Amino acid sequence: MDEERKSILDELDRAVKEFVSHELTYLLIPEVRTNVGYAIRNAKDASDVAAIPGRITTAFQRAIYCLPPAFGASDHIARVILTAMKYNPETRSAINLAYYPQFLKLNPYIFDRSQEPPGQKPVERKTMNFMIEKAVQDTGRVPEFIVDKGDFGKEPGLFILGGTPTEVISKAIHLLSLL
């Protein structure tokens, strides 16, 4: 393994340990569970993005995870990061969290899934790409916070995007002060 990939796994591991060490972060875990990813520079596909295999989940009012970070562990969060990197190569990390109305105080970009093209909507693995592309189209930049309003059978959520997992985890933990 090259030095960059090892460094990414190490930083992601430290950041996730920080996240689960806070006793209230379980409140931030949505029903679909949470993942956080971190991409190598010039990432091309999901195999260039490290994430948590099996995601971060909850048990006994604690955020927990079972396996250490690995490359290719999450297609979902990888698509968010890879699409964001097309517009800002420094946006190499993201996390998905539960949505609370209090998060609107962050002035997030609001993604409405009804704006997704009808022919694309039923196709798996397209919505996250469209969400980022639409956010950039509407704001002229990759937003720091994106609220996905959800849809029938799709849970609402919040995405935090940033340069490193340390950064996005720090912002996630700060959200607890809004609850």
From TrEMBL:
**Xref: Gene3D superfamilies:** Class II aldolase/adducin N-terminal domain
Protein name as it appears in the record: Thiamine-phosphate synthase ThiN domain-containing protein
InterPro entries in alphabetical order? Aldolase_II/adducin_N_sf, ThiN
Report which residue ranges the record marks as coiled coil: none
Give residue ranges for domain Thiamine-phosphate synthase ThiN: 11-173
